[in-house]
Amino acid sequence: MQCFNHPKEAIGICKHCQRALCVDCCTDLKDGLACKGVHEAEVTHLNSLLQNTKKAYSSSPTASLFGPIFNIFTGLAFIIFGIQSSSSNFLIVLGAGFFTFGLAIIIYNTKYFKKITTNYDA
């Protein structure tokens, strides 16, 4: 593979523009190569986006439980108030709906996050 700018042997590819680069034309940014003086900022930004995505993904399974747990507690509160007031079944039905929805979302999220695997440690 030849360098895009020179008739030299390329040592890698720019992470931004995907052009082959020789030793004189590239800058090693630890997590990828960039065209010297041209794409360093773009590759650095891309690397930071990838790191942020890894961090966000690693917290997703935990964060996805907060909403369903809130629904379950809200459902239980409505059920308890409905039983105590005993004037109508509306609060009990509403509470059962919240509770069931919360359980369904927890089950869905648990199955969803088991399907996704990654090869990196965030």
Short description:
Keywords: Membrane, Transmembrane, Transmembrane helix. The chain contains three helices and four strands.
Give descriptors for this structure.
two-stranded antiparallel ribbon, 122 residues, mainly alpha, transmembrane helix, two-stranded antiparallel sheet, rod-shaped, 8% strand, 2 domains, 3 helices, B box-type domain-containing protein
Largest beta-sheet characterization:
2 strands, antiparallel
Oligomer: single chain
Question: Within the largest sheet, what's the order of strands?
Answer: 1-2
Number of strands: 4
User: What is the percent of helical residues?
Assistant: 55-70%
* Helix/strand structural class: mainly alpha
Q: Which range does the strand content fall in?
A: 5-15%
Q: Give the mean pLDDT.
A: 86
Given the C-alpha coordinates, what overall shape results? rod-shaped
Low-confidence stretches: none
N- and C-termini, Cα separation: 34 Å
Q: Provide a count of the helices.
A: 3
Order of helices and strands: EEEEHHH
Based on CA atoms alone, the radius of gyration comes out at 27 Å
Q: Number of folding domains?
A: 2
Keywords: Membrane, Transmembrane, Transmembrane helix
Transmembrane segments: 63-83, 89-108
Protein name: B box-type domain-containing protein
